[in-house]
Known about the structure:
This protein has helices at residues 3-28, 35-41, 46-50, 56-79, 86-99, 109-117, 123-148, 158-179, 181-198. The protein has 203 residues and is mainly alpha-helical. The chain has a domain at 61-198: Tetracycline Repressor, domain 2, CATH 1.10.357. Helix 1 (3-28) crosses helix 4 (56-79) and helix 7 (123-148) crosses helix 8 (158-179). It is elongated.
Amino acid sequence: MSTARTVTKGAATRELILDRAYNVACRAGLEGLSIGGLASEVAMSKSGVFAHFGSREDLQLAVLDSAGRRFLEHVMVPALRAPRGIARLRALMDRWFDWARHRDDGGCIFLAAANEYDDRPGPLRERVIAQLDQWRTELGRAATLAIGTGELAPSTDVEQLAFELYALALVVHHDAGLRGFDVAYQRGMQAFERLIRANSPTA
């Protein structure tokens, strides 16, 4: 077997493990992951899983990174097709709210991780904070572009706006699970439009 084929097979196996681990973490949180349980999920030995992830924490970090890529592909990539300005900011929120549907995976891994590691120092908490900060930076960047197009007031506090947009997404996620997605989405978008009007040049 060639080295290239071995590497390809190894990468495919690693992605399979990550995919199953992601689904488990969405349902049970990152703390619900175990090497033994995951080995059973993918019909491998524990040593086989360890060959791809040296420790449980390495696996958890890899799952967070995988979730981050999924999030960007679901939210950021489609939203970037919208024109700069409010249209793009609206697209970001629309796709972010849609992320709350979780038709197949059982829940938002980021909400679970924030609750699990908010008071637990270490690499996992640091990775969660880094992902949150990256996303708020992207929201702030989109808001800055909307200031540049003249659709938001020059005095708009982009960090505060990003904070409030993040808060909207959190309540949509909670209500989507408890009360149903459609109502949560509609209220979330209404709140978004109200927030945009409050920061418009004519407000």
